[in-house]
Design goal:
By secondary structure, this protein is mainly α. It is about 60% helix and about 5% strand.
Length: about 725
């Protein structure tokens, strides 16, 4: 008889090396069987077994339709009997927990649904009440209208006032408010013979922040559909060699977005340093006391925590208790339980305390965290830098560590301290990279637990952002910093163009370095754990992983120093456009929500190998951006903005007015204020606007929520 030779259809060299015969599951692919038909059969249940079959390199998933009286133990035992010796070392795992009907309501799902419905109903009621207060109960005379509104507010009481924070009209107004530019006094400059003036313009940060969020969504688009739990990793990588070339040429250099969060850290450090410098400069050192300082910095930390908490809690409860009960698919519940439910069951408290990147941390080889809400590690890093680094830098810079002997050298001390922190961060990162051989594992993550999610490795962009924030603060005070102001105002345009272009080229090279790294022979998988057969030596790869965060922060420092002093020309015009302002305010919600939409889509719909090309990637990306921001808009209007307003109102009522240095210490720009000009310098910073004279848009909390509270003292 003639031997039948099965074709190597689309197999790479690695697939041919490790694959068993050409059978669907034994070749390394997952086989889910008739899942949809099975769940409709009475007295039957659908189960999925995860097993490493003999002769197959990768774990695969087999779906089966079995009687309801069979449990996972019985099915596992049946599989083991087929090859007892092999499965004694590689035991199978079977899951039979798929719901027959949807939604699968349990008490927790009902409770979370009731919470979301409550927020929706409260928003509707508050909007109607707000409309009536502004229109129906308003008289022709402004005073009479104010009196009636005041009477209504008193009748409603404190709870009614809190409920009115959910009124969509003021929340929408805050979202679409146009950011302003704080322009320096030209007359004062001309009197001092300065040939140029500077315009302090932070609006370009809106564009930077939004584009960084788009980049992060793009990176998560690739990672969620490439590392899809519904497919064995092995079959997904190797089904079509074109996928590998697509990965090498596009995903690593541009789509990964692993540096997007470092841009957020840079913006966060900038805004913390700038906004709190404005507050701290108004306070008199001679009138300070330890009691007031403890109050100030205690509220600094607590207000930030309270500002982040509502959105995080709503998202956490929704993905933990509700989303998994609303849909099902082959393999979906295995992924969802492992990524969202089980971590939240164990470590929800760590996420709410923003320590999840330290404990419980995550896998070193891989990109999986053990904590609740997978992307929340970034919030923890930002919070830790905000609480433990920023106050020390600011206290040193403005107060000389509260010691009179250091007053003359306080700024030099702060600069030395920042330099020492940068050196310490680079030293620790170098030790981690070299000790644990951190390369470009798992799509640029490196060592997830030791390297990727720790504040001491991600600190450089934050510290360099603080440098720029302090510089902008000093440039505003031209009367006291005339020499510094003159230097920046009179730098030649060609010098700035060269500096900007040099920083931009370095910026691009940092993002595209993986294109040089992945120079592997045809037919081989890209190196995910070891530096072999690549276009970079081990020392070169180590140097890149050690310095990439520092390099990214330095590039941003150069480019956005130029744009923030009004010398960015076309770049500033593009990034400062009004379109970016409301998009930037949605970033916090978008950061937490977009990844959930991506996980639900990819883990429930894609259960077959995909032939990748650029248009596949971009199509998914556009859908995820639009969907993520649409849900984020609802989250902002119904959760983030209302609770932010409540926090500002509470702080305004609790915090007394601070002692002032004098009239020269006051702001030169009037803040928009419902109570009238200058009435609430002590109020929390309004987040509806990113402008030097006033507010910070709501951080992801990627940003500086720091400048979110203005705290005062008696």
């Amino acid at each position: 008889s003639k031997e039948i030779v099965e074709p190597n259809l689309g197999q790479s060299g690695t697939m041919q090396q490790y694959s068993a015969p050409w059978s669907f599951a034994m070749k390394g692919y997952d086989s889910y069987g008739q899942w949809y038909e099975c769940i409709r059969v009475e007295s039957a249940q659908y189960c999925v077994s995860l097993l490493l079959a003999p002769g197959v390199y990768s774990e695969t998933k087999w779906g089966m339709c079995v009687p309801e009286d069979l449990d996972n133990i019985t099915i596992n035992a049946a599989i083991v009997r087929t090859n007892p010796q092999f499965y004694a070392l590689n035991p199978p795992k079977t899951f039979c927990t798929y719901p027959k009907t949807l939604p699968d309501w349990n008490p927790a799902a009902v409770g979370v649904t009731a919470m979301l419905v409550f927020f929706a109903a409260l928003t509707f009621a508050a909007t109607v009440a707000g409309y009536l207060m502004r229109n129906v109960f308003s008289g022709r005379e402004a005073g009479a209208a104010a009196g009636k509104v005041g009477w209504v507010r008193k009748a409603l009481g404190v709870l009614g006032g809190m409920g009115l924070c959910f009124d969509l009209q003021p929340n929408w107004k805050g979202l679409v408010k146009e950011p302003r530019v704080e322009e320096q006094n030209r007359e004062g400059l001309e009197a001092n013979s300065v040939s140029r003036y500077l315009t302090i313009d932070l609006r370009s940060l809106n564009g930077l922040r939004t584009l960084s969020m788009f980049w992060i969504i793009l990176g998560h688009t690739g990672s969620t559909i490439y590392f899809n739990f519904n497919l064995s990793y092995f079959s997904y990588w190797s089904f079509n060699p074109q996928n590998y070339w697509w990965l090498k040429d596009w995903y690593f250099p541009f789509y990964a977005g692993v540096l997007g969060v470092d841009t957020f850290l840079f913006i966060s450090g900038l805004l913390v340093a700038y906004k709190f410098s404005q507050q701290m400069s108004k306070r008199s050192l001679s009138k300070m006391s330890w009691k007031r300082e403890i109050q100030f910095w205690g509220m600094y930390c607590v207000a930030r925590w309270l500002r982040l908490l509502p959105v995080l809690v709503v998202v956490m409860l929704t993905v933990w208790k509700l989303v998994g009960q609303l849909l099902t698919a082959p393999g979906f519940h295995l992924y969802w339980d492992a990524s969202y439910v089980e971590p939240c069951n164990k470590y929800w408290w760590a996420t709410l305390l923003f320590i999840q990147n330290i404990y419980p941390g995550g896998e070193s080889f891989g990109n999986k965290g053990y904590f609740c809400v997978p992307v929340s590690w970034y919030l923890a890093v930002d919070m830790q830098l905000y609480v433990f680094v920023a106050p020390i830098v600011l206290i040193t810079y403005h107060y000389g560590l509260y010691a009179k002997v250091f007053q003359k050298a306080k700024k030099y001390m702060a600069g030395s301290f920042i330099f020492a922190l940068l050196a310490t961060s680079i030293g620790l990162t170098a030790w981690i990279v070299m000790e644990h051989n951190v390369m470009w594992q798992f799509l640029g993550v490196g060592d997830f637990d030791r390297y990727y999610i720790k504040p001491w490795t991600r600190a450089p962009p934050y510290l360099l952002g603080m440098v720029l924030g302090l510089l902008i603060f000093e440039l505003q005070r031209k009367e006291k910093c005339q020499r510094l102001y003159t230097i920046f105002a009179n730098v030649k345009d060609w010098v700035l163009v060269i500096l900007f272009l040099a920083a931009f080229v370095a910026f691009v090279l940092l993002a595209f370095t993986p294109a040089f790294y992945l120079q592997t022979p045809k037919g081989r998988l890209p190196p995910l754990s070891e530096n072999s057969d690549t276009g970079m030596t081990q020392d070169e790869a180590h140097a890149y992983m050690i310095l990439r965060y520092l390099g990214w922060g330095l590039c941003l420092l150069v480019m956005f120093t130029i744009t923030c002093i009004g010398r960015g020309w076309l770049v500033n015009d593009l990034l400062a456009g009004y379109f970016w302002a409301p998009m930037a305010k949605l970033t916090y919600c978008a950061y937490l929500i977009a990844i959930v939409i991506q996980d639900v889509t990819t883990q429930s719909l894609i259960n077959h190998p995909v032939y990748y090309n650029t248009w596949t990637m971009l199509s998914y990306w556009v859908v995820f951006v639009v969907g993520g921001y649409a849900v984020s808009f609802v989250c902002y209007m119904c959760v983030e903005a209302p609770f932010g307003t409540m926090l500002r109102n509470a702080l305004s009522a609790m915090v007394p007015k601070p002692p002032q240095k004098g009239e020269e210490g006051k702001r030169t720009v009037e803040a928009e204020n419902p109570s009238g000009p200058g009435a609430d310098d002590e109020r929390p910073v309004d987040e509806g606007d990113l402008s030097p004279g006033e507010a910070i848009f709501s951080p992801t909390r990627e940003e500086a929520e720091a400048g979110e509270i203005e705290l005062g003292h008696k």
